[in-house]
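Methods — Computational structure assignment.
A single polypeptide chain was analysed. Its primary sequence is given first, followed by the predicted tertiary structure written as structure tokens.
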Amino acid sequence: MAAKITLSSEPDQPHSPTFSDRILVLDEETVAVSRANSEEKPETENAVFDCQVETDKTYCGKEKCIIARLKINFADGTEFPEGAVNDKFFITQADICGQGQSKQVQFHHQEDNIEDKVDQLENINAQKIGKENEILKET
């Protein structure tokens, strides 16, 4: 029997989508945790989650966090004891969300002008074409 990790959705967590329990059998060295995409779908035996990018400023950052209760069972079936509050891996919701403060990111700088960017790209492209033409003439 292999060791298992069970991830359970934490109820009443506004920053976490609800999901069905995930039972991960630890028969490999690593377990991938990822967001669902066209190739990987959320299932009860994987750590793929169906979470969306959010724009609401009340959420932690840009994406919803996956907040889960973790239960570890050793290969012999015994359960790993629950972590203590003073454990270095114990994290409260306030730790996850920065005590209610959302991260603000500025994506557009006033000095960045799209026309300037296009001009820069055109110059780079022209230089590259010029160098390629010189190489072709030499051969």
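Note: The CA atoms of residues 61 and 103 lie 5 Å apart.
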